[in-house]
Design a protein that fits this description.
Helix 1 packs parallel to helix 3 and helix 5 packs across helix 6. The strands form 2 sheets. The chain has a 6-stranded mixed β-sheet, with helices on both faces. A 4-stranded mixed β-sheet has the order 4-6-8-9. The protein is α/β, with parallel strands linked by helices and 241 residues long. The protein is 50% helix and 18% strand.
Length: 241
Amino acid sequence: MVDLELDDGLAVITIDRPHARNAISLETMDQLEKALDGAHGAAALVITGAGDRAFVSGGDLKELSALRTELDASAMAFRMRSICDRIAGFAGPTIAAMNGHALGGGAEFAVSADIRVAADDIKVGFNQVSLEIMPAWGGAERLVTLVGYSRALLLAGSGTIIGAAEAERIGLIDRVIPRASFDGGWRDLARALASRPAGEIKRVMKGATTTEAVAAFARLWVSDEHWAAADKVMKRDKRDK
């Protein structure tokens, strides 16, 4: 099951398949596509898993083992890759709240987000090679962008699984939060991104022209939200003098 929660500009998509450690099946792909449709227009998007054992444990091998032809394997890979591309291309900031281990396709799902926040006891690994296959959902290319070519090849080529602290050190994870405060921590971060003009900043960072970047700034400058915030600062400065 895939749940969609909408909360004041924040969309949270949760994969809830405890019996399969949140592994992704073909039905899960159906539900992810519908959830992304429902999240359209949100200021920020979170992808996460239910429970505290697995973020996403990869593809559901019990079901996907029925795919025995190259054509079927290609169709599955293209489909899930398009879902990850939709997450990467979401208009607002996207956050992977890594509540548990992210292995194989789960690691690929995580790196489709702009930002990765993880509980301090999780592990992450592009370990598809243990099944004599390779990442197929766009994760290999995104891993290179995050950690560099040689380190990405070492991780994915060897299937090394690393802890949250090491993943943060090399830039694979952006923030590690103690398990006890993880749920509140990622929600606070996501709400902050949803309530601020982070979406405009994302668009500029993705390659806006100078004209587009200045126009985005100008729109924000004349907004009521900017002047309400600016008035608070000016009043505070006046009091402090």
